[in-house]
Automatic annotation (TrEMBL):
SUPFAM superfamilies linked to this entry: UDP-Glycosyltransferase/glycogen phosphorylase
CDD domains referenced in this protein's UniProt entry, alphabetically: GT4_PimA-like
Domain annotation Glycosyl transferase family: ranges: 303-459
Pfam families: Glyco_trans_4_5 (PF16994), Glycos_transf_1 (PF00534)
Annotated protein name in UniProt: Glycosyl transferase family 1 domain-containing protein
Annotated GO MF terms: glycosyltransferase activity
Record-annotated membrane-spanning stretches: 275-293
Signal peptide residue numbers: 1-29
Keywords noted in UniProt: Glycosyltransferase, Membrane, Signal, Transferase, Transmembrane, Transmembrane helix
Species this chain originates from: Arachis hypogaea (Peanut)
Length: 489
């Protein structure tokens, strides 16, 4: 059997003080390292198509204020913002909306949260998340009833989160929906075909705007809604996500990274000079009162772990055939579940056993501790299939740790990774197995190139993908939507 590791078990007591130092910088009152949790289809955007979108990058570079300067969201002070989420869970969409809620509360906005779908029985995750929002001054109200309607009408801005939240409009607002649509900003993260239903998005053309995580996702929505539903998207704002300050603190702390690297590698049974290539699935940090909670996303075919392992095996064969002198290579698959192995995960383990590479492949349980693995590996593999990731926050998190990225040439990954500069891109599907294997060999044989790519990736994150970049991008969107709503009223 391939190795299965729970990396945080059996830590020597003498290491706890240093580990606490590392994680205290990570675990502030609310830490949300969020990325969309589905490997959803995205279509590359052409230069002509980009004219359709509101792209704020040039404005951000010219106007961004750093340090102790005022927040770009300060104009939201005293504004009443209603946020409607289709669910409240430890998945990317709801947590990303919570992150925005806390940013707005930080500048003095009045924020009201409603969850459209809740289970009939008490839910510990929902209770914990609602408690954290209440602690931060976010009002939590029922999504139905007269108070919900009154709040929507009085709000300066209504943010619908995900396509499914569109069901709330008719179900709750009924004949008053037309009073609210002009001040609705629809934040969309999904790309699966079953979300393109009239009952979800029939009001989409009439809202103030749609906010989407990448150009590829926005382009897909524009084409899909027109071709499949015959409706037109509203003005669409593309807002790339950003790394939190807490993650950057760890990524830039050489002592913390060294301690994390040593411990994880020790737990995996690999040496310091071995080369680790990792595919990491759905890591979401969420500080819930005093404990961490876990996103329950495991390995899946859409994330491409099977094709990655085939590429890794092929790279080992190439190294042996060419008699290349390289460090020992290891593959790490983070997101496993040894207690509930799926058919797909069983296939992965069977492949590893058949190829007799159990000593080179390590399956790691689902975990929230993304920072230790980013600190311990040498290369991130982002192998999402079909149309790729809508954005892929793990990619910018890895780049913050100065890691080169080997990603599929699809979806939002192409908006993050600069091919040949911060990593290499390869095709999706079986056609990408050999190119990825070759890129793994390149990373193993060209040390300086690997390190330079990691450095360039870090520089790209500092330039474009930090929390304050995301806040500035969102601020430009909110200003525009508020102005539209004011004109309508």
């Amino acid at each position: 059997m391939a190795k299965h590791t729970q990396a945080w078990m059996g830590m020597p007591k003498k290491r706890w003080p240093l580990m606490l130092v590392a994680f205290l910088s990570l675990s502030t009152a609310m830490v949300l390292f969020i990325r969309p949790n589905s490997s959803v289809p995205c279509t590359p955007t052409t230069a002509a198509d980009n004219n359709h979108f509101v792209d704020q990058d040039n404005q951000i570079r010219s106007s961004l204020q750093l340090g102790n300067a005022p927040s770009p969201l300060d104009f939201m002070k005293s504004k009443l913002v209603l946020m409607v989420s289709h669910e409240l869970s430890l998945s990317g969409g709801p947590l990303l909306l919570m992150e925005l809620a806390f940013l707005l509360r930080g500048v003095g906005a009045d924020v009201v949260w409603m969850t459209n779908q809740k289970p009939p029985e008490p839910d510990q995750v929902i209770y914990s998340l609602e408690s954290k929002m209440l602690d931060r001054g976010v009002q939590v109200l029922p999504a139905k009833g007269e108070k919900a309607v009154d709040t929507a009408i009085k709000a300066d801005l209504v943010i619908l989160n995900t396509a499914v939240a569109g069901k709330w409009l008719d179900a709750v607002l009924k004949e008053k929906v037309s009073l609210v649509l002009p001040k609705v900003l629809w934040w969309i993260h999904e790309m699966r075909g079953h979300y393109f239903k009239v009952e979800y998005v029939k009001h989409l053309p009439f809202v103030a705007g749609a906010m989407i995580d990448s150009h590829t996702t926005a382009d897909y929505w524009k084409n899909r809604t027109r071709e499949r539903l015959g409706i037109k998207m509203p003005e669409t704002y593309v807002v790339h996500l950003g790394n939190s300050k807490e993650l950057m603190d760890v990524a830039e702390d050489s002592v913390a990274k060294r301690v994390l690297r040593e411990h994880v590698r020790e737990s995996l049974g690999v040496r310091n000079d071995d080369l680790l290539f990792a595919i990491i699935n759905s890591m979401i940090y969420c500080w819930l009162v005093v404990t961490y909670a876990q996103s329950l996303i495991g390995v899946s075919r859409g994330k491409g772990q099977d094709l990655f392992l085939r590429s890794f095996y092929e790279s080992l064969q190439l190294i042996q055939e060419k008699k290349l002198q390289v460090p020992t290579l290891h593959a790490v698959v983070v997101g496993s579940d040894m207690n509930a192995q799926t058919k797909f995960e069983t296939e992965l383990r069977k492949f590893v056993a058949e190829k007799r590479i159990q000593d080179r492949v390590h399956f790691v349980n689902k975990t929230l501790a993304v920072a230790p693995y980013l600190a311990s590996i040498d290369v991130l593999v982002q192998n999402s299939q079909a149309r790729g990731e809508c954005f892929g926050r793990i990619t910018i998190e890895a780049m913050a740790f100065r890691l080169p990225v080997l990603g599929t040439a699809a979806g939002g990954t192409m908006e993050i990774v600069v091919n040949g500069t911060t990593g290499f891109l390869h095709p999706v599907g079986k056609e990408g197995v050999t190119p990825l294997a070759n890129n793994i060999v390149k990373m193993a044989t060209h040390v300086e190139k690997r390190l330079t790519m990691g450095k360039k990736g870090y520089e790209r994150v500092k330039e474009r993908f930090l929390e304050h970049h995301m806040a500035q991008r969102i601020a430009l969107v909110l200003k525009d939507v508020l102005q539209k709503a004011a004109r309508q009223n």
